[in-house]
Amino acid sequence: MQQVPITEYTDLYQGLTEAEVQQRVKQGKTNKLKKVVGKSYLQIFAGNIFTFFNLLGFIIFILMAFFGEPSEMLFIVVILSNTIIGIFQEIRSKLAVEKLSLVSEPTAEVVRDGQTVTVKTDEVVLDDIVVLASGAQVCSDCVIVSGEAEVNESMLTGESVAVKKKKGDMLFRGSFVIAGNCSAQAVKVGKDTYIEQLSARVKKAKVPDSQLIKGIMAIIKVIAIIIFPLGFLTFLFYHDVQALLQNGMGFFEMWGQFFSGNAEVVHAVRAAVQSASGSMLGMVPSGMVLLTSIALAVGALKLARKKVLVRELPCIEMLARVDTLCLDKTGTITDGSMTVEQVIALDGNEDNLKCLVASVVAATGDDNMTAKALKAYTDGVETLDDTAHMPFSSARKYSAATFAGVGTIAVGAAEFMFKRTDKDFDKQCDELLSRGLRVLAVGKTKQQITDDGVSGLVPVGIIALQDTVRSDAPEIIKWFADNSVAVKVISGDNPLSVSVIAQKVGIPQADKYVSLEGMTDEQVAEAANNYTVFGRVTPEQKAVLVRAMKSAGHTVAMTGDGVNDILAMRESDCAISVGCGTDAAKTVANLVLTDNKFGSMPGVVAEGRQVVNNIQNSSSLFLMKTTMTVLVTILTLCLGVSFPFRPSNLSAVNLFVIGIASFLLALKPNKKLISGKFLVNTLRSTLPGGLGMFLSVAMVYAFRSVIGIAADEEMITTTAMVAMSFTGVCALWMVCFPFDWYNVGVASLGTAG
């Protein structure tokens, strides 16, 4: 990462003129990048058309066009319909998600024509003066021309250590400001930025950690390995083909006779190809792949209607598997707004304390919710001029400023500011904390601000702030408790006050709280699964907590809206942010609640569970037919008889017992907690039905002589179809258990078909 010099300085206060902006736009010197939300249209068409199962289906269709009857080719209608439906649903979902993504598009503040205006980040142009505050993500490579800031460059370096930046230092696209304020001139934009140049060299598609995708890919691999050998053997061991080969005709000679028009050979080869095609088609669970794609796409579409932006479809599955939800108190349990409830000046001079607090807030330029509450409390108070200042950061837990003739004043968490305090001070703080109030200490020292912070502080005052609890918080928390999702509260505030508020909204075991101040990573990891409320947590400790919960076997979702949440969000299985969150938080989130309503979370989790549970149930129907077909093929090869089913024979089972039933099951609401692995769960449901269908066909072959159909292939096929259909319907009823009116209706429709 090299320093880029400014070749032509832009006026800090005037910025670019509109004419200069338009000139750069015409020259292509903008921050715009070619970006696609989700799959491109080409990827959607290719992904639905060029699948392994479609390829196999088209090969068999071509074979049937040459060797089969027209009635045996109707299966292609199902394949084409599946493909068209899949394309339609994915495009429909893409359009909805793209429309929603515009709402949460990141913005930047720039100076133009002497005014600070907000523009989309891709509208920033070369030489723009970009105004950056705490929580802002740097949208282009810039050089600071005014102010100072602490920046997290972990997206570039992999290290989460805050880097101090001053005038003349370089800021790189993708990093984010965690403290301070500055103005910077854009020196590299768009594809010319360092991170985009790096991405162009090492860009790789991220493979989602999805059990659905892994399970389906494993099934496809197994089928791909066995289907062609079994299909060839089914053709080769067809009784008419065997008769030709046993009479001395060679394999290639047989094909020569076929193309020469030998009637006996043509009949044998046509029948053998139809038999092999029926076997191969029966092994293909093509609808399962389609149903998975459609279910995920429809899930994203339904979530988009609920104002939830889904970054990647597989994250719907991860959300569905969540059994632990980590929340920050602010914005979830509380709405983020605060008011000053009580002020205690230890020397009795509240006016002087108010002046000191107002001066610190003005000097640091902090604009978080706490700072806004303090600004409202000190509105109209005359402030002092600072000689040095240090903005608030989540790691330090306080802000400070130095004033001539006064000394250094700090405002923040007492535990991080003072080495020791007296009993009266501690008692007053504890009493306020026990009421659920957020407590800020005001400290004073003659020491100067250093890179390590401020030392020698002594308390001079206490400020208690009241959080506003969300009216819907108790109902939301109850839903999670009733649906087997443990709620953990991770906060930078005092754990006692957070615990009191958590208990008010009904979080189970909220009385089990702990402060992580001064703990090692090992101690934090040990505490992760023993407590519900965690206070005085640093951004790094949040990440350790999430990692420890995952190590204990939990699937963890992390909600966050600020830069202090980003490390933990990256560690989580599913990261969730809100539309009003910082650009940095929204960038790393898998899901964005664009309407800022945490109350939509239960519906989001329920939607994810419905998608995955129903895909799991429906997949077992498709794989039952696959299991049965593979086993029947092996049985007929061992017995030296022909595979009994042709493509048309399986149409009714495919349509009613599997196709329509699986589609209807996929639409049913299902909030059941998902446990275990997709492949294991699916196979557990598949094997009883698949084995039952196989055994019913095997019984026909076992007793074909007894029932007098040993020499009649058509009767064997008909009898096997009846037996297989009956056990298939029984298996459908098993999948629909436990019964309710909806499941009974689905099973009844399959039975009637």
Stretches where pLDDT is under 50 for at least 5 consecutive residues are 201-208
User: How much beta, percentage-wise?
Assistant: 15-25%
Please identify which CATH superfamily of the largest domain we are dealing with: Calcium-transporting ATPase, transmembrane domain
CATH class of the largest domain: Mainly Alpha
How many angstroms does the end-to-end distance come to?
67 Å
Radius of gyration: 34 Å
The coarse overall form would be elongated
User: What does the largest sheet look like?
Assistant: 8 strands, mixed
Strand order of the largest sheet: 8-21-20-19-9-16-18-17
Instruction: Kindly report the CATH topology of the largest domain.
Output: Calcium-transporting ATPase, transmembrane domain
CATH architecture of the largest domain: Up-down Bundle
Number of domains: 4
Helix proportion of residues, in percent?
A: 40-55%
Could you say which structural class the secondary elements and strand pairing correspond to?
alpha/beta
**How many individual helices?**
27
Give the secondary structure arrangement, pairings included.
Blueprint: H1 18-26, H2 41-49, H3 52-67, H4 75-103, E1 107-112, E2 115-120, E3 129-132, E4 141-152, H5 154-157, E5 162-165, E6 170-171, E7 176-188, H6 194-202, H7 211-236, H8 239-246, H9 251-260, H10 263-283, H11 286-305, E8 308-310, H12 314-320, E9 324-327, E10 334-345, H13 350-364, H14 369-377, E11 386-390, E12 398-403, E13 407-412, H15 414-417, H16 423-433, E14 438-445, E15 458-469, H17 473-482, E16 486-490, H18 495-504, E17 513-515, H19 521-527, E18 533-535, H20 539-551, E19 556-559, H21 566-571, E20 574-578, H22 583-588, E21 591-593, H23 601-639, H24 651-666, H25 678-702, H26 713-735, H27 741-752
Parallel strand pairs: 9-16, 9-19, 16-18, 17-18, 19-20, 20-21
Antiparallel strand pairs: 1-2, 1-3, 3-7, 4-5, 4-6, 4-7, 8-21, 10-15, 11-12, 12-13, 13-14, 14-15
Helix pairs in contact: 2-4, 3-4, 3-10, 4-11, 7-10, 7-23, 8-10, 9-10, 10-23, 11-23, 12-23, 13-14, 19-20, 23-24, 23-25, 23-26, 24-26, 24-27, 25-26
